[in-house]
Write a structure and sequence with these properties.
heterodimer, A: Aldehyde Dehydrogenase, Chain A, domain 1, Aldehyde Dehydrogenase, Chain A, domain 2, 2 domains, 17 helices, globular, B: 308 residues, 10 strands, 45% helix
């Protein structure tokens, strides 16, 4: 119920609407590919729609990339690599990256609103996380552009050439930033494909690239779905591939890339264990678990989707968790007070719905708080499964939605065993006030990132990536720079 | 500190345990709650709720009966030009001013709170502190604000810190007891959480952040920390304790973020004068100016509210 204007109405937390204005964004009716510095029509003339998942309203028609479009993009990237970009000193490349970072900061509201409209995530997340981190990534790698010989001392490194990059729909702009910034800093040129449900912020980034006079062809953006991605993966002119997305697609890409022996980095799925000991800061642990699984509607590869809680506090912890989840505000993603936004697409909503139904049919107990779902759009309430066994599907397979499973453990050894018993290994979380236990756990956990007494913290200087079926290669830090460089056979110097 | 200190409530019941606090996550959560956007109708109800929960305070060595009378007038009728504005919850004064305050607010529903028990340091003999409380109650105070014995608490003499509060509670009789932790002197959120549990177990009706006499006072993370302690205590014992933020709360925006923190942590049933107070002096005028802005669409200025 909306609050009334009665001055004596007690203050409630059903806050009056506080929507961010959409006047700041200007969405075109149709978008072409961004190739060689200009927007161009798709060769086939085919387009597909992108919609606002919170309202199902049509936002724009997007060019559907064919193999021919990809070929044009790769040719433009090759020409730029062999032309101005390849010749340019690192200090000059760095200036372009700094300009991109500053433009993202200056236009952050516009980008944040567009990200929320196209992807359904709450504006407070696109505003406070996606945009600041995207800018930070460019700032960080801008600094490396003229220091590659210090990053890799006594080695002579050079860029690969044309990098093909395919990014997912959960953090559309941020994932593009994670991929573009190190590739460009290292001196590569790029063909980037944003996800088909969330292409708009990447296309707005093209506008930024035009504004800062990035030489044509250095970054090319080809839009489309799986077939477009396959055309990039299979293109003979691509020297390096990077993909963030599902494990299933990642495996297909690895097969294709291995046949051609080109370097590849994969950042894939996860099924992270979030481990809470009885000696943790309990109230903050509850917050951490909630942030870990419900932020961005659980569309996070490193989401803490499996809660492992020490047996002695399990009941009270789950009770606190349920109470906290009941206060999450689900609704209009553009409202500044929304905590849980819309599911990214109808397809993803169907996958989540099916997985949760499987969980119920396999015998786990489902809790969902009472919450009104909007009539239009794609929505799923925050959900918790208790009574979960290690063999349950919901505890083994990535759901990529706002669904947490709860299991208990008695000893730290048991927690480690359960945490590691998964094909994935992207991230893990530990909550305990005992430092020695954190160190012991960190050594044992087979996960690329382990957070202690926090969750979902990202920094451009810190490497991020997975073990096992969560992929290989790292993004962030010097570790994220290395995959975009190779060691030169000649050691005649010259620096990259 | 150890992960869990255990207190046994004075009024009986099972032992109450306390949990550690992670400072980084606590502050992050408070900062997140302070991004709540309070607009239009919610802003109006937040401003009115703020006024209804204010303990309008003067604790100066220069206080006089005249100044207290003026403060009481303001407490009862904060904006003489706008009868819709509610009265504040209480006026808060030194013991010597209690009778003047009682006379000024008689029959208005505004309560009189008195600091007592060797406020603000509490560094007097236990008998003296109890006598001070009894004196304030005798003068007609409805509520007594005392300080935790930080000297005893920080030196590890939890028994003495607890017993002094229990004795104060007894001396209060029917008056409500608020226990000031003076958070800025306790050094960590862990210690504040522990002191909160100790004070509640000893019989506090309210726990309160600060005296207002030192700079680090009612910050948003600190109020969140104490709200979480109150929730924990209620979970463990079923006993409902109130929360008072005091010291450094000067703007309406600070105040409504406190309402957000308490409302989202303890539930909006806590947002009544029975369970939530804001101890302040200059806050009230900022709230009145914000209400004028809502009514007229324009900011007026400090000359359009009374300075008492």
């Amino acid at each position: 119920m909306a609050p009334t204007d009665n001055p004596h109405e007690p203050f409630g937390i059903d806050y009056a609407p506080a929507p961010e204005s959409t006047a700041v964004v200007n969405i075109a009716k149709t978008y072409g590919h961004f190739i060689n510095g200009d927007f161009v029509e798709p060769s086939s003339g085919a387009t597909f729609p992108t919609v606002n998942p919170a309202t199902e309203t049509h936002l724009a028609n997007i060019a559907d990339g064919s193999a021919e479009d990809v070929d044009r993009a790769v040719a433009a990237a090759r020409a730029a690599f062999e032309g101005p970009w390849g010749q340019m000193p690192g200090s000059e490349r760095g200036k372009y990256l700094f300009r991109i970072a500053r433009q993202l900061q200056e236009r952050s509201r516009e980008f944040a609103v567009l990200e929320t409209m196209d992807g359904g995530k709450p504006i407070k997340e696109s505003r406070d996380l996606d945009l600041p981190l995207s800018a930070a990534w460019f700032f960080y790698y801008a600094g490396w552009a003229d220091k590659l010989e210090y990053a890799f001392p006594n080695r002579s490194v050079a860029p690969h050439g044309v990098a093909g990059q395919i990014v997912p729909w959960n953090f559309p702009l941020m994932m593009a930033a994670w991929k573009l910034a190190p590739a460009l800093a290292a001196g590569n040129t790029v063909v980037l494909k944003p996800a088909e449900t969330t292409p708009l912020t990447a296309l707005l980034l093209a506008d930024v690239l035009q504004n800062i006079d990035l030489p044509p062809g250095v970054v090319n953006i080809v839009t489309g779905a799986g077939a477009t991605g396959a055309a990039i993966v299979d293109h003979r002119g691509i020297d390096k591939l990077a993909f963030t997305g599902s494990t299933e697609v990642g495996k297909a890409i690895q097969r294709a890339a291995s046949a051609r022996r080109i370097p590849l980095t994969l950042e894939l799925g996860g099924k992270a264990a979030h481990i809470v000991f009885e000696d943790s800061a309990i109230d903050q642990a509850v917050e951490g678990v909630v942030t870990g699984i419900y932020s961005n509607q659980g569309h996070v590869c490193c989401a803490g989707s499996r809660l492992l809680v020490e047996e002695s506090i399990a009941d009270s912890f789950v009770e606190r968790l349920r109470r906290r989840i009941s206060t999450l505000r689900l609704g209009d993603p553009l409202d500044k007070n929304t905590d849980v936004g819309a599911i990214n697409s109808a397809d993803q909503l169907q996958r989540i719905t099916d997985m949760v139904a499987t969980g119920v049919s396999e015998g786990a107990d489902l809790f969902q708080p009472e919450c009104d779902l909007p009539d239009k759009g794609y929505w799923f309430p925050p959900s918790v499964f208790t009574g979960v066994q290690q063999s349950h599907t919901v505890a083994r397979e990535e759901i990529f939605g706002p669904v947490l499973t709860v299991q208990t453990f008695r000893t730290a050894e048991e927690a480690v065993e359960k945490a590691n018993n998964t094909p994935y290994g992207l991230s893990a979380g530990i909550w305990t006030e005992k430092g020695s236990k954190i160190l012991w756990m960190t050594e044992k956990l087979r996960a690329g990132v382990v957070w202690a007494n926090t969750y979902n913290q990202f920094d451009p200087a810190s490497p991020f990536g997975g073990y096992k079926e969560s992929g290989f290669g790292r993004e962030g830090g010097m570790h994220g720079l290395a995959p975009y460089l190779h060691e030169r056979a000649d050691l005649t110097g010259g620096g990259a | 500190m150890t992960a869990s200190t255990v207190f046994v409530p004075t009024k009986g019941g099972g032992p109450v345990s306390t949990t550690p606090v992670d400072a980084v996550s606590l502050e992050a959560r408070a900062a997140a709650l302070c991004t709540r956007s309070i607009k239009t109708t919610s802003k109006r109800s937040a401003l009115h709720t703020t006024i209804r929960c204010i303990d309008l305070t003067t604790l100066e060595g220069t206080d006089t009966p005249g100044k207290v009378a003026s403060l009481c007038q303001k407490a009862v009728r904060p904006d003489p030009a706008n009868p819709v504005i509610p009265s504040v919850a209480a006026v808060c004064v030194y013991p010597e001013m209690v009778e003047h305050a009682v006379a000024a607010v008689a029959g208005t529903g505004v309560a009189v709170a008195s600091v007592a028990g060797a406020f603000p340091a509490g560094m007097s003999a236990p008998a003296v502190r109890v006598a001070d409380i009894a004196d304030a109650v005798g003068r007609g105070a409805d509520e007594i604000d005392i300080v935790l014995n930080r000297s005893a608490f920080m030196s590890g003499d939890l028994g003495r810190a607890h017993d002094e509060i229990a004795a104060a509670k007894e001396a209060c009789g029917a008056a409500h007891l608020k226990v000031i932790l003076e958070t800025g002197e306790l050094g960590s959120y862990d210690q504040v959480r522990r002191a909160s549990m100790l004070a509640m177990a000893a019989g506090a009706d309210f726990i309160k952040t600060s005296t207002g006499k030192i700079p680090k006072a009612a910050t948003h993370p600190m109020v969140l920390n104490m709200a979480e302690a109150i929730r924990d205590y209620a979970d463990q014992t079923g006993v409902v304790v109130g929360l008072k933020g005091a010291g450094g709360i000067r703007t309406a925006k600070q105040a409504w973020h406190h309402l957000v923190i308490v409302g989202e942590t303890l539930g909006t049933e806590w947002l009544t004068p029975d369970l939530f107070r804001l101890g302040a002096s200059s806050l009230l005028n900022d709230v009145l100016m914000q209400i004028q802005k809502l009514d007229t669409g324009r900011y007026s200025g400090p000359d359009y509210v009374t300075v008492d």
